[in-house]
């Protein structure tokens, strides 16, 4: 796209967004008028009463409106397709993919502030968007960057807790242990013990959430350097933004890797509320467990191979293909390898999804990044070949609802290209990113006063009897 055309497209998008209604669910632009415009917490403080009213009105006027029928298939089929959660920060369309506060990934790439000279969105900008529903200005994003830096001190006992684990403990186990150790400083727990009123729950939740988001890259990079770099720590560089500083602390300073990390953290942040990690955090927090406890629980779900661990599995699987058949594997040989995996009773990692029914736009934007920055990389070319080979085979199986690649099919080869080749570590990166979406929603959970989550369960006997009566 020419410079002129992209500027025109951007200004059209800006005016479309500006014309949208003034409710939180749609995006607004803000003119900076006072110092409080630069302060995220003050912005939230202003928004909360109007959103509380909005929810109250929905409940009182439409509380009995039906949202669909629950079938037996849904109950025994992992609640697929069952609408059962309120999640404000993002919404997933099966065909289009994720929208963060109404904005698709390409739209976020166009409107969210970037680093100087960079092209990818800054994760701080996405955090602002998810929390407020407004696209932040560059000044707001840089104020938030500084605020996160000011919150990023990790107490010594956290490192000691991680050090107590054997070096070969899975990186996700070490990371989650670090998060649990951070919990010692929970503001929410302190405020609750001190008898804080319900109406104020969101305030210590906000403090914990921002502290947690700020500290996670330090804990995560400590785990990486401990396991893979003989414990040699790279100190933070506070001249850098959130994503770039994370990459720097891991030990990667190539400007393209900094861009990749900004993009990576942004696109992995949130995927509506029903996925295992987001739903777990929301459920645990509904018992008024603080953000650290809730997020640690989410990480344990993310560490499962059908969810976040799939990014590790993809790179290990791709490397096993190369080890067995070489980088120049033919299309026919690749098909055989996919069939071999399936016939041994395993899934093809990185393909399929519980909700999506088309190629994941998080895959597509990583593919675009690869086409721009590493088009000749042999593993990227293998990933491209898999895009042709795997979907027809999964379709042929006849039972796979979505044969297309998901976010995890691509991330590993990008990280590997820039030298972050330790696949077992990849889910930790996903975890750091996920904190942005999960914590944003947890703040709204408390601000909106959402109740304890407690769905009804039934036994097989109950279902049999119910079906007999219904027949
Ligand atoms: N390879 C082989 N079989 C697959 C498959 C894949 N990639 N995707 C789905 N299937 C199978 C399922 O295992 C299931 O088989 P059974 O009926 O024998 O149990 C059948 O197809 C139907 O599954 P589905 O309804 O299409 O998919 P689900 O909603 O049950 O599961 C997911 C979704 C992601 C767990 C599944 O597609 C999968 O296992 N993919 C590979 C792992 C992966 O990439 N996970 C990451 C997802 C993204 C993320 O959360 O990070």
Question: Could you describe the 3D structure shown?
Answer:
The protein is mainly α and about 475 residues long. Among the domains are: about 1-30, no CATH class; about 150-300, Orthogonal Bundle (Citrate Synthase, domain 1), CATH 1.10.580. It has helices at about 5-20, 40-60, 70-75, 105-110, 125-130, 140-150, 155-165, 170-180, 185-195, 200-230, 240-250, 255-265, 275-285, 290-300, 310-325, 330-345, 360-375, 380-395, 410-415, 425-445, 460-470; strands at about 30, 90-95, 95-100, 105, 135. It has a 3-stranded antiparallel beta sheet. The protein has a two-stranded parallel ribbon with strand order 1-5. The longest helix is centred in the middle third of the chain and has 27 residues, at about 200-230. The protein is globular. Residues about 1-5 and about 20-25 have low confidence and may be disordered. Carboxymethyldethia coenzyme *A binds near residues 306 and 351. Carboxymethyldethia coenzyme *A binds next to loops.
